[in-house]
UniProtKB/TrEMBL annotation:
InterPro entries: Ald_DH/histidinol_DH, Ald_DH_C, Ald_DH_N, Aldehyde_DH_dom, G-glutamylP_reductase_CS, Glu-5-SA_DH, GPR_dom
Ranges for domain Aldehyde dehydrogenase: 5-282
Location(s), subcellular: Cytoplasm
Cited SUPFAM superfamilies: ALDH-like (SSF53720)
Reactions that this protein is recorded to catalyse: L-glutamate 5-semialdehyde + phosphate + NADP(+) = L-glutamyl 5-phosphate + NADPH + H(+)
Listed name of the protein: Gamma-glutamyl phosphate reductase
Record's keyword annotation contains Nucleotide-binding: no
Pfam families membership: Aldedh
Family: Belongs to the gamma-glutamyl phosphate reductase family.
GO cellular component, one term: cytoplasm
EC number: 1.2.1.41
GO biological process, one term: L-proline biosynthetic process
Amino acid sequence: MSVKQEMRAIGKKAAAAARALASAEGSARAQALNILADLLESERRFIMDENGRDLDQAEKNGLDAARTQRLTISDKVLASMVQGCRDVAAMADPVGEIESMVKRPNGMLVGRMRIPMGVVAMIYESRPNATIDAGILCLKAGNATILRGGSEAFHSNQALASLMHQALEQAGLPRDAVQVVPTTDRDAVKEMLKLSDYIDVVIPRGGEGLIRAVTEQATMPVLKHYKGVCHIYADETCDLERAVEIIHNAKTQYPSGCNALECLLVHERVAAGLLPRVAERLGRDAVVFHACERSLPLMGDADVQPAKDEDWGKEYLEMTMAVKVVDDMEEAVEHIAQYGSNHTEAILTNDHAKAMRFLREVDASLVVVNATTRFNDGAQLGLGAEIGISTSKLHAYGPMGIKELTSTKFVLLGEGHIRQ
């Protein structure tokens, strides 16, 4: 069977599974998720062994540290997968929910019913936990899913797919409700993006090259999950001690995360007081700074390099951070508008008016006041697991949980009404 034939077969099976899911009880979908949680725990050794195969190959291929970290299924990552399954299973079923029912002047009732999207395809890099997150969220929302992870995670993803198939079958649901593309052939993605007859929406989650390729080639709607060039602006009124801790957390807790801090903007009036503290605190964790001319003299003994033009707007995904001193908030907002990626932006300030202005003027899927950028995460924002963080404004903007993986249709309840 050719790659084209294989992908069409996958699409056809997904469409059939989506129709079956649309009529399945929400309790069956929740049951499948709880069974999957049990399987993830009981099959820990199998999962770790398959992930080990990927990690061994990654080392041979010279995969960089950031992508290797994303590829690794640690005990903590596996525990998070298990908890994600249980949390999503326990959440309210969105399918069939009626919203905004209103009575028209003629007595008929008009509302919106929440419905599955149908077949959701997702193309992503490195993270095996994204396979579980995407699969369980789409299933809870009543969608069938086609998943294409990075070739570096092939064995991990196939192992997780086999467990999802077991869970679906044990719950009496079609195993094809979640399919992981069983080949690393790059032509599989090209063929998948032609399947508009079967796939309702595609979600690319990864770097700039992946997003651009999917956007240009897809024949179905695209929900982009773009890179995270996240900024923190430290205003002149910020609490310096608190600012240092927030900046440290945003950069070092998980530097390869898409919501990690990549560029620090500092008001000129607090630069002399804040930057030496930031350099000392983050320097202990071996953070490398790419600093502008005004900030260079303030960085002490830290590992610092003069910033180049390409450092602004760069997603480092490692222990490296750009630093820039700005004249005022206007310059900070302008810098974010020019170099940000509409992902996560934060301000540290004790001025309420400036905080509210920053919230209004900065365009990002999450805008934060006096907290770390690391909170742009589905679980942290109360959505449970997430399929990703959308940087597209149409349909969804920000972390996509269960509700964001559904659509709505109008429903009308009449009593013999006719149009005059």
